[in-house]
Structure formats: structure tokens, C-alpha cells
């Protein structure tokens, strides 16, 4: 499949551009230790990532991807604050780029595409990560999980990008690794690319209705019909 007339590319962050699990797991386990709770293996925490900091905190407190409905709200807020404090110190210690991410973004940016981050990660952490990994200059806009009242899978973040940049959903493409990205794009009337290597809680990304599914980030370039200069 080839996408035509795309000007704006919206990218999820965790599980799409970066593998942030090592630093998230470190910070979650530091939080659990501070609360005198048992820490978990990194691979277990990996299965909980993808729905924002608050949900990750609740899953850690529950010890399961299924959140305990009886969790005390005040205790959750305390735990979340502790987690965010630790993550602020660990935000880019072992976080790494997935293969071909930087070269692909550089190529897309050079080709004239407008690049945007749309993530459920709290906004305060996004630019420091992008800067540390040498990606900051590629993105003209960042929308975090706490930037607006709602976040993916709700389409609000995507609609906000369209309104802010003055573009239509049909000229945009959402690229992510989880069903939250695909569902948000569908609800925003936007086409999407699903990536198979990220955090989708063990579910096959092919089952969520993405316009195209790729195994390799570099495949995005081939999936786009290049922007052409207007002829006069």
C-alpha cells in the first residue's frame, strides 16, 4: 500500500521510536521499593507499558495488567508521584532508539514532511528524551498524555494536531505500535501504520485495523508517495 497526499506524520513515542522499558521498569521498581512492595522483572513490567504513567502505576500496584478496582485513589496518587519523581531522574539512562528510527526520521524531515509526537507519556519527559537521543530538531510539535483532557485511544490529541497545524485528517498519517494508536486514528478519520515490534500487550497489531502494518520502521519511507513541489 502507498499513502498519497500526506503532509503531516504523527508518531507515537514509546514502543514506536524508543524502547523506554528499562528506565520505566527501573523507576517502577524504585517506587515499589519505596512503598515496601515487591519489585517485578523487567519483562513483566514491559507487558504493562503503553497506556500512560497513571495506568502503569496502577498495574504495578495491582501486580497485574488487570487493575485492582479496589485500589485507593489517594494511595495511587502518592505512588504515581513517587514513580514520576524517580522517572525524572532515570528518563534516558538505558532508553534506546529502535533500528532505523533516526535515519528514517532524518530522511522524512529532509523530504519536507511535518513531524509530530503524539504520546500517552507525560509531556514533561518527552523533549528531554528527544534531545538526549538527537531527535528533538525533527519534531515541530509534541502532544503528551497530560497535554489535553483525553488521550489515545480517544482521538482528541490527533484532532488537536490537525486544528493547531491547520491541516485535515486526510493529509495526516498516525504511526504507532499499539491498538491505542490505531483506534485513535480511526476515530479521527486518519489513516495509520501499525508497527509489530512495540508494546501491544501481546496482541497482534494486525487485528486492530491499521491501514498498513510494518515490521521495520524504515518501511515508512517506501510506503509514502513523495511530496512533490507544485508546478506553475
From TrEMBL:
Q: Which residues form the signal peptide?
A: none
What are the record keywords, sorted?
A: Carbohydrate metabolism, Hydrolase, Magnesium, Metal-binding
Question: What family name appears in the similarity comment?
Answer: Belongs to the HAD-like hydrolase superfamily. CbbY/CbbZ/Gph/YieH family.
Q: Write out the function statement from the record.
A: Specifically catalyzes the dephosphorylation of 2-phosphoglycolate. Is involved in the dissimilation of the intracellular 2-phosphoglycolate formed during the DNA repair of 3'-phosphoglycolate ends, a major class of DNA lesions induced by oxidative stress.
Q: Does the keyword Metal-binding apply?
A: yes
The protein here is known as Phosphoglycolate phosphatase
| UniProt feature coiled coil, ranges | none
Q: Which cofactor does it need?
A: Mg(2+)
- So what does this thing catalyse? 2-phosphoglycolate + H2O = glycolate + phosphate
- Which species does the entry assign this protein to? Pseudoalteromonas obscura
Q: Name one GO molecular function term.
A: phosphoglycolate phosphatase activity
Give the record's pathway.
Answer: Organic acid metabolism; glycolate biosynthesis; glycolate from 2-phosphoglycolate: step 1/1
Task: Give its E.C. classification number.
Answer: 3.1.3.18
Question: Which InterPro entries does the record associate with it?
Answer: HAD-like_hydrolase_sf (IPR050155), HAD-like_sf (IPR036412), HAD-SF_hydro_IA (IPR006439), HAD-SF_hydro_IIIA (IPR006549), HAD_2 (IPR041492), HAD_sf (IPR023214), PGP-like_dom2 (IPR023198), PGPase_prok (IPR037512)
Keyword Nucleotidyltransferase in the entry? The reply is: no
NCBIfam families referenced in this protein's UniProt entry, alphabetically: HAD-SF-IA-v1, HAD-SF-IA-v3, HAD-SF-IIIA, PGP_bact, PRK13222.1-2
Can you tell which superkingdom this protein's organism belongs to? Bacteria
Q: Where does Mg(2+) bind?
A: 12, 14, 177
Q: Which Pfam families match?
A: HAD_2
* Active site feature: 12 (nucleophile)
